[in-house]
Target: Maltokinase
Amino acid sequence: MRPLDRALTGALADWLPRQRWFGGKDRPIGEVTIGSDTELIGADTELIGAGTEPPVPLEGAPTLRHLVVDVRQGDDVDRYQLLIGSRETLPERLRPGEIVRTPDGAHLYDAVHDPDLTRVLLDGVAREAGVGPLRFRRAPGAEIETGLRALPGAAEQSNTSLVFGDAYICKLFRRLSPGVNPDLEVNLALTRAGCEHIAGVRGWIELEPGEGGEPVTLALLSEYLRTATDGWQLAVTSVRDWLAYPGPDGHGRLPSGGGAWEPEEPAALDAGAAGGDFAAEAERLGAATAAVHRDLATAFGVTPARAAEVRAMARGMHRQLDEVSAAVPELAGHADAIGRAFDELGEHAVDIPLQRVHGDYHLGQVMRSDTGWVLLDFEGEPARPPGERRAMAHPLRDVAGMLRSFEYAARFLPAGDSTLSAEAAHGLELRARAWAERNREAFCRGYAEAGGADPAAHEVLIRALELDKAVYEIRYEARNRPSWLPVPLRSLEHFSAGAR
Ligand SMILES: Nc1ncnc2c1ncn2[C@@H]1O[C@H](COP(=O)(O)OP(=O)(O)O)[C@@H](O)[C@H]1O
Ligand SMILES: O=P(O)(O)O[C@H]1O[C@H](CO)[C@@H](O[C@H]2O[C@H](CO)[C@@H](O)[C@H](O)[C@H]2O)[C@H](O)[C@H]1O
Model:
């Protein structure tokens, strides 16, 4: 190994666990090795495009390498994608991304923050370039405007998204799975089905695996929804408005507002009375979800759900419950009540067919544009293996995911305030419940009226699916954002209290 690579892989073992998108923060890294290394901007670069000249870097100009690294943690090896910039001097704005200084004095850094380098990704797609094992693909009929500068989007989540001008968003998948990424696969299929509720695909980048294997999707380039706002922001704004609502008599009920906090009964709480009501949007979102489910069924087909499949689903839920209860002690007190809901599902007949679904559906995955709701990120739950993420599932699984998200939005603000008295916290919990209830109902109504399976007619299934998602969230929060753990726990406390 070159000394430069030794310095880099050593430093990555420290740097990777500090990245939001790194999925193995709960275990130490044993070793990082470089699997593939492609120079995208550098002395020997050759961007093979339609009649284009390869970019020739100026003396001392920054260079860019594309790396796929294998990260070993115990017996597991996960594959990640990195863009590594190299500069002799590092401008202040790129310092936070610095990974290491090499023995010859170069600064190696996370190049996603460097528009001088990331421009090559858009150029590559526009030219349908090929560099080493990297293939840049343009979607059929797409015209790409080049020369736009990119910066990472503010909402960095499981991957890194670069926004080019205000025209395109390029999602770099950080953890790589073999084959076509479901996000690309589903978006292309929905485009072909004429679905109105997705962002248009403009292109993608893939890695030729060699040996006749399937190409590995590295990035997805989509239309950027410039004027849209994500569902989470809209919902939390509505909750904030509702929690601060002084009531029709205007006497002020916020504990911090100086007035006495009077715990209210849910029946007396009209969450639609405050100005920022979300219910009409929730209903439209339900309808958009049903439309996408219909198009997914057309594009990928449906299979009947037999009793054996439902029992297997219930067993899988139990398995996850056991694993997460063992790892997160706060869950253990609710495990019996949750387990009983899974047993009930196992004994229950479900006659709705299985199909491809979104798989990780929540308010952060939908955006309200000026024409309607758009669904994003069809990758499935990032912690699940690729086979499971593609599996046929019950469409109400997505409905349950969104219902959980209403619970999150409702409880997120109060959960962060440790200064509340018990009485005030109780009052806020009642308001949170009223908001969640109103928006859950509106979403389900919109979903059923637009042709989706009526959630009200599948109480046992929806309950089990919601609890399964809550258990997943407990593990997700414990691993990724421990300070958020009280949010799903609050819902489970409420559920356990009702189940006693
Ligand atoms: N086409 C788009 N237009 C505008 N913003 C987008 C678009 N796609 C994604 N985003 C923004 O980027 C965020 C992350 O996108 P997402 O696909 O969910 O990535 P991740 O897999 O990292 O969670 C979204 O919550 C949204 O705010
Ligand atoms: O969007 P991702 O694919 O990265 O999904 C993961 O992260 C989500 C959080 O960013 C997480 O969603 C949970 O928190 C949301 C609020 O931030 C909430 O709306 C969701 O209902 C809740 O599940 C998701 O579970 C995880 O897979």
